[in-house]
Please model this.
Amino acid sequence: MKVLILGVNGFIGSHLTDRILSETTWEIRGMDLAKNKVTEHFDNPRFSFLHGDISTSSEWIEYQVHDCNVVLPLVAIATPKVYVTDPLKVFGLDFEENLKVVKYCVKHHKRILFPSTSEVYGMCNDEEFDEETSQFVTGPVPMTRWIYSTSKQLLDRVIWSYGQQRGLKFTLFRPFNWVGPRLDSLKAAKEGSSRLATQFAWNLLSGKPLNLVDGGNALRCYCDIDDAIDGLMSILRNEGGKADGKIFNIGNPQNCLSVREIAELMIGIWDVHPFRLERGLPQGSVVDVVSGEYYGSGYQDVARRVPSIKRMQEVFGFQPKTGITESLKKMLDSVIDEFMSLEKM
Model:
């Protein structure tokens, strides 16, 4: 099987590449603007890489869609700060550019695995979010934070309709706060535009307090990247066509914590970490910040986000097993490794 991964150097793409090349005989065609997370595979004859931009590499992408069996368009802006500061950039990449890829898959009759998002559920009041019955509840138009959620939601609906009317073979999967090594780059963290765990790690390294937006009361369910890739590989293998035309949440309802609790866990790990002790770096601390000041006036948060994973369990026997403390330790160690590598340059 030939797999096309757009955004191969990203968090999901790089971990998926590791797993495919170690566990299968499949080939990977990958494209990204950076390559640092996948360079170890450049000598593998089953891995081909193009340094390219999804918005300017249409001809190459269409050729690869035609030549491959399954397509994963993982390119997206997925950081809340950018949703507020540059919503048109989010829409242009996350919706418009990915729609082109969807249409190539329709044209060439190829299977697509599309990364939806837990954010499509928005402010749904369900105890657990179900893929096909939970309501999507987003905020008013001036809250530009919802540009990401609604861009993804509209693509979900377009892909579903292509499946019904044009026979597109597809699966939608919804990541719920996947966490682990390579989540974001330190460059993004320095700019304040990385996701939560990486941002906290950078603040600890740089001696800054961890910012608890609106008290850090928002509840999230965190899933270790290795567990998440277990689930994604089951969907890719698609034994018996069990994933065709389906939507799957991939997360870990057992790892539900508030942002404040995540901060406290990371500080606990950091305060006893050999790297901090050897260098005499400050212990971790927290500070409460107002969301409007931290993100901007277009930000609106979700109080709780808990997935139902019954479908993944029933169809594929999916069972995440990694605790959040272990995941955070792995993630923090990877950030420290990156920090030390940059020091040597």
Notes: The two ends are 39 Å apart (CA to CA).
